[in-house]
Design goal:
The complex is a heterodimer. The mean pLDDT of chain A is 95. Chain A has helices at residues 14-25, 50-56, 60-64, 94-97, 129-135, 139-153, 163-166, 181-192, 194-199, 240-247, 296-307, 374-377, 384-394, 437-456, 519-535; strands spanning 3-10, 30-33, 100-101, 155-157, 173-175, 202-206, 253-256, 259-266, 271-277, 283-293, 314-316, 318-319, 322-328, 347-351, 361-367, 398-405, 413-419, 427-433, 460-465, 475-476, 502-504. Chain A is built from 15 helices and 21 strands. Chain A folds into two domains: 1-37 and 111-154 and 238-315 and 409-434 and 478-537, FAD/NAD(P)-binding domain, CATH 3.50.50.60; 42-75 and 161-234 and 322-406 and 436-468. In chain A, strand 9 (271-277) and strand 10 (283-293) form a beta hairpin. By secondary structure, chain A is α/β, with parallel strands linked by helices. The two termini of chain A are 25 Å apart. Helix content of chain A is 27%, strand content 21%. Chain B has helices at residues 3-15, 21-33, 40-51, 56-66, 71-84, 90-94, 101-131. The radius of gyration of chain B is 15 Å and the shape is flat. Chain B starts with a helix and ends with a helix. Chain B has one domain (3-131). Chain B contains seven helices and no strands. The model of chain B has no long low-confidence stretch (mean pLDDT 92). The chains are: A alpha/beta, B mainly alpha. The interface between A and B is large, with 43 and 50 residues.
């Protein structure tokens, strides 16, 4: 018998989970189609601080390096260090099911239960009205949606100098996590030199995080064990799986795993959705009256291009440009970094060159300890014995600035679908992604200004790392919002132009990417799109 | 030379720590699983290097500049990863308060530079011809 539902949601990442929750809360019969890989390996990670685990657990190699040491990064790849062995399932099966060919773009994709939300750094930036307008989103609806999402997932932060760039008017914010000593020094330096730094366009604020500092719906506050990249005790960090597990208990929600959605066909009164079973390889068709695609920018683009094979040859692409700047903080040299800490970014530096309340670049500040020093030793051009000693001596004074730049479309940023019978889905994505000279110069200029502000904050920039395009895991822009209704664009309500009931609830519609993590906005947008789906019934 | 002796020499070179039987087993499994295999010629040179372990930091330093993806360096990297994920290295790697810290950093930096210069010479004369 054919399976029929009111609405089918494709993908279980942050967007899919939020959209599904909104639909189910309004009583819509909702099915989610997802591959949904989970971790095969079971790791027994003690509920202890990182330092205690390092000193006492004889089995720590199993989760720090992975079983059979397969989690040790090889080669000169600087990307996604947060995808640690317990999270390796996040990218499982991607090469087989989601092949991509490119020499200039190396994205992260996921077929996991909860998608790339499993490796999310938890930063929750609410975009400013100007940024939302530039993206093509409804400012008022999205701002309301931010508060709805904040209530659902739990966000900690502070309405400090970074507030206008990070939180705007989002309500229901828990207190920010306690700053560790290194970040306390930076924050104190900012307070002392606030006027000078602001004159140079800098604002520093506590990073809003989807990390609990108070109890919420049975989840417990962060225990400050600095084990955030390896485990999630008390579910203090929000992951989409938390929402999915709750939805599975709801009467109106059905979750289908092992389904890779290939294409859809919109007919008179229904939509046929074709999915391939990833375990048996056979295909299946399901039916719905509303289809909501939330498979991530690249996943959704594949589905769209397969569904309109004669028309869609090429789609634009946006990928946030990201660089690391490794810094030394002399004030922390030889000091105790403290045992109570979190592994996520605690402070963000916003570069507002124009002074108009919109950041032109941001630097998220991290300390480095629980990801282990051997990864850094591999980046130094000296022998390992001396490298590990120098890193051990200087680890408390190490600050990493992750710099995000704004990204705009251009003719050198696009993807195309190429039929290829040798692939599991009979096609492959080809991507081209290059910046023009003006973009590169602008990024360099922003980085110089950020470096000069970091110096004023007591951090000496030492080494710049360019992990390449795709490493930010921030993608969008393949089906940009366009009120004219041109082919392969989205209407203001997220509906795909030329269709009646196909909605896109991920970053595909974003006309540009602001220089801040998009996940919070993706979730808010998914909620807004799901609301439009409900209203369209 | 067996894996136990090999990992012991590498750990002593890296942090002057001894490896036990279980670590040796882990090292062997990883070498056989990961793409860290050596050609017969490389194995011969690697064996000689382990017998003259004082040379290892110099070769490592030279390879860091000349060929950071060389299999010798990968094996040392693997040994370092195993070392850092073992309680025996915790006290050293987690302690940040030390006496004469600035002097220590200066001396180790100087030593690293010397090892790099000599290492490039050694690698150019010995390791690189083997690779060719």
């Amino acid at each position: 018998m054919n399976k029929r539902h009111d609405c089918i949601v494709v993908g279980s990442g942050p967007s899919g989970a939020m959209a599904a929750q909104t639909l189910v809360e309004h009583g819509v019969d909702t099915a989610m189609l997802d591959v949904g890989y989970t971790s095969d390996a079971k790791y027994h990670i003690p509920d202890l601080p990182f330092t205690d685990i390092r000193r006492t657990d004889p089995s720590q190699h199993e989760y720090f390096l992975g079983k059979d040491c397969t989690g040790i990064p090889t080669g000169n790849i600087h990307t996604a260090p947060q995808i640690t062995p317990p999270r390796l399932f996040t990218t499982h099966g991607v090469e087989h099911w989601l092949p991509i060919e490119s020499s200039t773009f190396h994205p992260y994709q996921s077929l996991a239960y909860g998608g790339l939300g499993n490796a999310w750094g938890l930063a929750c930036f609410a975009y400013t009205p100007d940024e939302l307008h530039g993206i093509g989103l409804d400012v008022s609806r999205t701002q309301d949606a931010y508060t709805t999402i904040a209530q659902r997932i739990g966000i900690s932060g502070e309405h400090d100098d970074g507030g206008p760039y990070a939180l705007n008017h989002v309500e229901y914010i828990q207190p920010a996590a306690t700053l560790e000593p290194s970040m306390q020094h930076i924050y104190a330096a900012y307070q002392r030199r606030r006027k000078t730094i602001q004159r140079h366009g800098g604002r520093v604020g506590k990073t809003p995080l989807a990390l609990l500092t108070q109890h919420l719906n049975g989840r417990t506050p962060t225990p400050y064990t600095d084990m955030d990249f390896w485990t999630n005790p008390g579910l203090s960090a929000y992951r989409p799986a938390i929402t999915l597990n709750a939805l599975k208990k709801q009467r109106h929600f059905t979750y289908y795993s092992n389904r890779l959605v290939l294409a859809f066909a919109e007919k008179k009164n229904e939509i046929a959705v074709t999915a391939q079973h990833t375990d048996t390889d056979h295909t299946e068709t399901m039916y719905c009256t509303r289809l909501l695609l939330a498979a991530g920018t690249l996943g959704t683009a594949r589905v769209i291009m397969r569904s309109f094979p004669n028309a869609a040859h090429c789609l634009p692409l946006l990928s946030g440009t990201y660089h690391y700047l490794a810094c030394i903080q002399p004030a922390m040299f030889g000091k105790d970094p403290g045992t109570r800490k979190i592994s996520y970014s605690q402070l963000t530096l916003f570069l507002d060159e124009a002074g108009d309340g919109n950041a032109s670049a941001t630097a998220m500040l991290y300390t480095y300890r629980s990801l282990l020093l051997f990864r850094l030793a591999n980046q130094l051009p000296i022998n390992y014995a001396d490298a590990i000693r120098l890193l051990a001596y200087g680890s408390s004074s190490l600050v990493i600035a992750g710099i995000h730049h704004a990204e705009h479309p251009s003719a050198q940023k696009y993807i195309r679908r190429i039929p290829d019978a040798s692939r599991a889905t009979a096609d492959v994505l080809q991507a081209t992604y290059t910046l023009n000279a003006a973009e590169r110069a602008r990024h360099r200029q922003h980085e110089r200004r950020i470096a000069s502000i970091l110096l004023r904050l007591g951090c000496i920039p030492m080494y710049r790392i360019d992990p390449g395009h795709g490493s930010s895991i921030h993608y969008g822009g393949t089906l940009p919002f366009d009120p004219t209704g041109a082919p392969y664009t989205l209407a203001h309500d997220g509906r795909l132009s030329g269709t009646r009931h196909i909605y896109i609830a991920d970053g595909s519609g974003f006309r540009y990417l602001p220089p801040k993590g998009p996940t919070f906005t993706l979730m808010a947008n998914a909620h807004v799109v799901a609301t439009h789906v409900i209203n369209s019934r | 030379m067996g894996y136990k002796e090999e990992i012991n020499i590498l750990w002593r070179t890296l942090l002057n720590v001894s490896a036990d039987e279980r670590v040796a087993q882990r090292y062997q499994e990883a070498v056989e699983t990961l793409p860290y295999t050596l050609t017969p010629k490389e194995r011969k040179v690697w064996g000689q290097l382990l017998r003259h372990a004082w040379l290892l930091p110099y070769v490592d330093a030279g390879l860091a500049i000349r060929n950071s993806q060389h299999p010798f360096r990968k094996r040392m990297y693997l040994a370092l990863a195993l070392l850092e994920a073992h309680p025996s290295s915790a006290d050293f790697l987690l302690t940040t308060r030390r006496r004469f810290l600035t002097a220590r950093v200066a001396l180790i930096s100087l030593r690293a530079c010397v090892r790099t210069v000599l290492g490039i010479v050694i690698v150019t004369c010995i390791i690189h011809p083997v690779r060719v």
